[in-house]
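Quick one before lunch.
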Amino acid sequence: MDLSTPDSNRHAGPRISCRVRIVGKIRGFTEQENELSGRDSKQWVTVCRPKESHSDSSGKVTISFGNEGSSRKDVYELDNCYQQDEDNAVVFSKEVTPLISEVLSGRNASIIAYGARGSGKTHTIQGSVDKQGLAALAIAEILSQTKDAKKAVFVSFYEVFQDHIYDLLDPNHPEVQVLEDSQGKIKLKGLSKAAVDSISHFHDLSACWSAPRYSVQKTPLQMPKRSHKGLMVHIASTDDIQGSKCPNVMNFVDLAGYEDSRRSSKDGITLTESTRINKSLYAIMNVVYALNTNEKRVPYREGKLTRMLQESLGGSNHVVLLTCLNPILCQDTLYVVSLASRSCQSAGPILTSSAMKSKKHTNQQVRLMGTPLSGKKNNSACKLTGRKLFSERKATISKQDDVTSATKFKPFSENASTITSSFHKKTSQDKSNSDSSGALILSAENEIPSAFKETVSCKNMEKDASPPNKAKDLEVTPEVHCDIKETISFPDDGTVGVEKKNEHVNIDKVGSPPLSARLREITNNLRLLEASTPLHILMPKQSDASQGSLESCDNIEPKTPKTETGERTLEIVKYTSPWERFHTRSSGVKNCLVQEYLNFLNTASKDELTRIQGIGEKRATYILELREESPEPFKRLEDLQEVGLSAKEVNGLMRRMAGQLFN
Ligand SMILES: Nc1ncnc2c1ncn2[C@@H]1O[C@H](COP(=O)(O)OP(=O)(O)OP(=O)(O)O)[C@@H](O)[C@H]1O
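Model of the adenosine-5'-triphosphate complex:
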């Protein structure tokens, strides 16, 4: 597959601006992938560039995912994207060379490779046996430019694993500490620097990036499976033989690969480890987002790596976030690119049906008449992750004119996606909308990204997808072979509307039917609910005077329904004494309070979370991140240990909370 077209090389080069530049890089096929699928396999990633003549001078590109003919049509915007056939040398000349001049004239710069596992980050930053990485190419250039400029070049290599920083040049060193001096400048205590005078010397030193490591007792250490690795290039004046007088720094960071932590990892990484790694990736992405949106507070303290790099990020420094993309179907790549795209705020990401469907693409909780739009069984809300993924900005597909791909499919027109600010806050009971067209408008009440409207189509709704009578308020009467067009709108006031019209026109032949899937799920949920509802309650026999009296009714406690012999009954519990009743019921109250508290942690906004004693800004942020990882991270009180609270602290917290009820 030849991805290049004359247009694909039409890079204007990076604008030297202080916002973080978000650039994509599609990895080349590995030999194995070549063997398995062949070069003429269907393309999964397509880069669309605006035409030169187009009024949009931002030069941004859109990346779409999905084979021609497939239903997946995720489209995201980045500052630029390098194709499979554009190797490290091309990326270096376009992205890194301009930054070297900046560093030599007094600024700091960082090139951060971010992506799913196996997306080519290491290949890009560290290089391989036969291809130099960006780091080595930069060192060669820096050495050549500083030769006659009375500058000395020092390097530091480090690894960040589970929020601990290790010096790779001197593995005997204890952990590197990130300290702040009296002027608020970051100091890295314990990170060694080595002077570099030639590229071969650099290659020798860089072996520590992948060399096996040993403990102080000389026993081999288990290498972390997923960690961040970095190089700091310090450019100091020649009289600074230690390179310690605040030299300018160029960072190269090969981030740990993103992997959905709910998937069991192939290499035995535990859920907690994986969550921590992803948390540190979110920390980077949150800093990038905050820098690009000029937020007052940049959350450097959210992660060790961000704290460590703080001096090189923001201000007049330059950062390139190189988002590495797998060239074959990879859910994690979609997620990564969606997060990267959200930081390209100047035009906002363009999102389409599959992005909408994916629970990963916004952190908003969307409820459809109290029933999940999609998502897991028994989950009352479908949680979509990716903070601020939907920006307030508008984007229209018509901006995209030129498709740089071998297959040249037109995702926009086929997808019929539009962004609108129109607002629909109506319910299905609103007769004016349930008109002859059969329009159906559903509403949800949670905070919803603004200005997003999407049109998708579904076809052939099956009979079994029809909701039972209990779902009458949805007013859906699915027909076999009916053609349905639905419009989902996200208005500004935080509600979502789903309009649906019976239309026998313009069926998207490749579009999946999201509404039908959702309705099927609603149906299934209702059936489950119906199945678990007791048909009748067996009351105590009248002959038993003690149980039959009105007085003793207060002594009975309904328990979970049992369905042993097919007959659904409600078990009746009789208390033998007021003490027993009081004891049992107060533990019930306690469990209820715990459950309410966990529900609160699973759903509350950041502001609400910080109202709870013991939850500060940082912990609230982490809770939100955990919720991005899993829709309901807190199922038991023990789960609170995940946010750094000890069992004792959790107990204290609950005791205080119970005490507050009487204040
Ligand atoms: N441009 C490329 N052309 C061909 N093969 C590549 C290219 N980039 C990477 N590869 C191959 O893809 C595989 C994964 O690459 P790499 O190790 O760089 O990914 P990674 O993102 O660093 O992975 P991880 O997240 O696990 O560290 C390797 O076998 C590498 O040789």
